[in-house]
Amino acid sequence: MIKLNQASFIYTSETTQTSSKVELLTVNYTNYLGSKIVDNINVPQGYIQSFVYNETGNSILSDLQEAETFTGNILAELTDMYISKLQILNPNTTFVSTLEN
Q1: Residues 61, 82 contacting (CB under 8 angstroms)
Q2: What is the pLDDT of residue 101?
Q3: 38: enclosing H helix or E strand
Q4: How much is the mean pLDDT over the chain?
Q5: Which residues lie below 8 Å from residue 1, measured CB to CB, with a gap of 6+?
Q6: Selection from 64, 77, 79, 63 nearest residue 25 by Cα
Q7: Helix (H/G/I), strand (E/B), else coil: 70
Q8: Which of helix, strand or coil describes residue 77?
Q9: Predicted confidence band at 100 (pLDDT cuts at 50, 70, 90)?
Q10: What is the pTM for the complete model shown?
Q11: Top-confidence residue, 31 or 101
Q12: Is 79 helix (H, G, I), strand (E, B) or coil?
């Protein structure tokens, strides 16, 4: 989870802001086997689809990455990635991971 230093309206992109104040965000992900084209051959490829939800369960951010992108704890890496994105978009708000290392 991601905790904000105070309940705030936050930007989720350069032009989109949440419609209500948020104080706690949940990061979730699913993994699945898809495929991609390599040298004109369709090969299996693992993917991670991730989402950030507000307190009311609405998805406010999402991302899709190849599974090989991750080197350890997928949830921790995704949480850090989303904190970095949110911090850039909301420089006056502090975002902190509630995950234990």
Answers
A1: yes
A2: 57
A3: strand 22-38
A4: 94
A5: 24, 25, 26, 27, 79, 97, 98, 99
A6: 79
A7: coil
A8: helix
A9: confident
A10: 0.90
A11: 31
A12: helix
